[in-house]
Amino acid sequence: MRPSRTAFLLLAVVAGCDRGGTPRIQPNDNLVAAGRLRDSTLSLTLVARLGRWYPDEDRRDSALVVAAFGAKGKAPSIPGPLIRIRSGTRIRVRIVNHLDSLPLFVHGLHAHPAADDDTVQVAAGDIRDVEFTAGQPGTYFYWASTAGETINQRLERDSQLSGALIVDPATGPVVNERIFVLSVLDLNDPDATVDTPPAPFATAINGRSWPYTERMNLAVGDTVHWRWINPSGDNHPMHLHGFYYRVDSRGNNVADTIYDPAQQRQVVTERLSEGTTMTMTWSPERPGQWLMHCHLHFHVAPDSSWGPDYPHVRNVATSGTHEHQMDDMAGLVLGINVTTLSAASPERPVARRVRLIAEPAAEASRIQLRQEEAGRVTAPASSPGAPLVLTRGEPTEITVVNRLTAPTAMHWHGIELDSYYDGVAGWSGSPEKRSPMIAPGDSFIARMTPPRPGTFIYHAHNMASNQIGHGLVGALIVLEPLEVRRAEDEIIWIVGGNDIFITGHLEINGQQAPPPLQLKARHRYRIRLINITEDNTGDVTLGDSTGLATWRPLAKDAMPVGLARMKLVPARVRTSVGETYDFEFDSGAPRRLTLLVENGGKAMASQLVEIR
Does domain 5-173 have CATH number 2.60.40.420? Predict the structure, then answer.
């Protein structure tokens, strides 16, 4: 029987006092494979035991006592020891359970692919041997729990019992690449009240939390291959700043699908569901300092923010001025330094100048944005902000004016631009010149020349606040030169809002139930669908009591989906934070439809669509 949550906390406190008997857990960068390879057989001993984990490695008071795997004779590590072999290798793993009174249920130590995820049970204090042959090449992982539950239920002390299992081709060179394993530890009490102190919560990449995560040092033109593994009980929409990346495979700890060229996709954000894997390739084209991070707010915020009702959360109206974004992020953030030997190219003459003004709205805690050009208002104040419409190839200067009482920073999500203007204050740019936080009453000029048309996002990048959830977001639309935008032929739906665990709902264009949308019958519309919630996946459907309407996918993250996927499909899509979708929608005969946003099967927001 699994101990209660309270028992877990007590175990952590007691073990935390035993500094002599509880080893320090080491971060594992997945650079060295574990075990001994002899005569095409890999032998490895995995020992599960308690240890003291420091995801914020230089903060001596931040130890979290958790269970972790380690190789025999070595300290436990997060993630566990890397198993990396060629296809056809025989693998012998001895599992030692040093967790007092707790059994161990180990998954993933079997040939791949597999019809089922074989599980090995190891009693407390016991030893079990597992032997299998490495199957098809791919990205897999092993994991364990102390109660035999599914991976999305494993959030507590045993949530770090995971490690990468990589199978390379039987012959030929092995690609130079990196492996990143994501961690989430959540000891939060579901029965907590506003007065309950925050419980331990941590997120990490290869055992470290930003700003202690490893820095990736690259050069312009490098070809980068990364494997991402999510053995945590939460999803992670992984967003790369400033560039697109190619998704080469998707899988889990049972099977992996390696895409052929026709299946590969270019994205700026890809959702890693619980227990899934991804391989990606990209090439930095511009120097500077960039990020790749999970786009869930509470996975990258420094104070594990759960919403504005908790007193430990820094609210948009009360945040102090931050010197730089290094103090304003934590968790699942990877820093990327890209260098070049060539001289920087001169900036092109600005062809257009826009002012984007952020200010408090009349509604309490909301933020609104308005646009000005040449001294006149071109888009009145609204929350979220009106679409910011740019032109491909046109050098544009956007002055972000902060009239809030708290600092902010603006990120141009999905736009390929120079690093200094990317919007991560204190990081974007270079060590010699980093972009600042925009203090109250101050402004910042961002310059960009959009290289491709499509649907993007502009949004706050001030992680310690709830500015995104309060409306500091908007659609960023890039048109082709000479293209005339017909707003009456477009539908923009921004799925937003604060964390549903606090508010209980999401928003569509700033409201949980916006007024009915009036559409013309037998008319063709372009739907631009954006998910920029703070923490939530939105399952979006369009239909009525008889079933779903149909739409035609056009693009994801502004990248065309390809002719093979441009066919009528039921109007349903699962969106994650930071993703944009474009659809073609033929309204058809007069009728009433409902746009419904759900999370976990529960309705979170809706809008009536009246077709006349």
Answer: yes
